[in-house]
User: Which sequence fits this backbone?
């Protein structure tokens, strides 16, 4: 996370910020997510059965991929000095464009679309994100995310 003065932070609106490091999505991570969410559909947890599908093997849950974006975004985000907390505010649009096959690597690409001050010291940050899959042209998912950044006493 890059911390910058408030005026500089505001200048990032409308700019692509960059990409995170790559993260491998292995079967162990997929299985643990399946256990946590009780979503044990065979395309996620049964390699033998999933091999006979058009995917050719198991794939990550779309929501697993989405749930990893806060961690990936923390590597590339720009935040204002004095920020005491960031809160997920929601998403305007999420589209799952391509499955993430087991043992693939993903990363997030971040573009800050808009930064608006909702109240003194509280900023609504609207961003476009794309979760890319190494070696693939089409991303796994795209989304418009909303976050509240709060500066000052928390």
Assistant:
């Amino acid at each position: 996370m890059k911390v910058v003065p408030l005026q500089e932070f505001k200048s990032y609106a409308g700019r692509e910020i960059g990409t995170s490091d790559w993260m491998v999505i292995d079967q162990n991570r997929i299985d643990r997510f399946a256990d946590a969410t009780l979503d044990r559909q065979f395309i996620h947890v049964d390699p033998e059965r999933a091999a006979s599908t058009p995917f050719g093997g198991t794939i990550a849950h779309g929501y697993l991929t989405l749930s990893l974006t806060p961690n990936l975004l923390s590597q590339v985000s720009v935040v204002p000095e004095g920020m005491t907390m960031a809160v997920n505010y929601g998403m305007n649009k999420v589209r799952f464009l391509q499955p993430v096959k087991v043992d693939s690597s993903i990363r997030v690409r971040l573009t800050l679309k808009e930064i608006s001050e909702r109240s003194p010291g509280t900023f609504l940050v609207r961003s476009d994100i794309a979760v890319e899959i190494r070696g693939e042209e089409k991303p796994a998912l795209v989304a418009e995310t909303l976050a509240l950044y709060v500066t000052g006493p928390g």
